[in-house]
Specification:
eight-stranded mixed beta sheet, two-stranded antiparallel sheet, 3 helices, 17% helix
């Protein structure tokens, strides 16, 4: 069964690390925070599609979503309170993709700068390796099925000056291998196919 919505989300502690074109909403209220945590605790594990996978490439995800008929309709960052440090905010970036021709009718505040938002997202997909988790959830109010792809543990492929991040390869004992460090390589790749399946394959 297809999912009417696919949501891609990640969090950062520093708002300067958010994509520049991403709108920032008003902070989440305490009631909204409690409701969100309750939903996550009761549904996430039983509907998990992809277990936590480190150093995962998502470079093909946007093209694969489009090929399956999903298009970006909403994008924003939501400030939230850190449960361990209530005086500190973090920022949850959320990108929503809708299925079919109706997607164009659902565009929200990103309509006027859609290209910039999508380009920023494409840069994130191509220039960062992530720890990936994926879930299939049912929306309480109307029973709609949603696929949620959660990204964290970001490993940028490039430094601020544009040069590639280089690392030493190591053997099973932790000893360096080779004569010089090499560019970061993914250990897996996330895919979304036309049967609406989310999967991870070895890279």
């Amino acid at each position: 069964m297809s999912a009417p919505l696919v949501i891609v989300q990640f969090s950062v502690g520093n708002p300067d690390r958010l994509p520049k074109a991403l709108p920032v909403q008003k902070p989440e209220t305490r009631k909204e925070s409690q409701s969100r945590r309750a939903r996550n605790e009761t549904s996430a594990l039983s509907n998990q599609l992809v277990e936590a996978t480190r150093m995962c490439s998502v470079a093909e995800l946007l093209d694969e979503l489009n090929d399956a008929g999903y298009y970006l309709v909403s994008a924003y960052a939501l400030p939230r309170r850190d449960r361990r440090n209530p005086g500190r905010l973090y920022y949850s970036a959320r990108y929503t993709f809708a299925e079919g021709e109706a997607a164009a009718e659902k565009l929200d505040s990103i309509r006027d700068h859609y290209g910039e938002v999508e380009d920023d997202l494409l840069d994130l997909f191509h220039n960062v390796f992530w720890q990936v988790r994926a879930y299939r959830n049912v929306r309480e109010e109307d029973g709609a099925v949603m696929v949620s792809i959660n990204l964290d543990g970001a490993e940028p492929r490039f430094r601020n000056d544009g040069s590639e991040v280089l690392v030493w390869q190591k053997d099973a004992a932790g000893h360096r291998v080779g004569t010089a460090p090499v560019p970061l390589q993914p250990q897996a790749a996330l895919h979304f196919d036309e049967s609406y399946a989310v999967s991870v394959a070895a890279s």
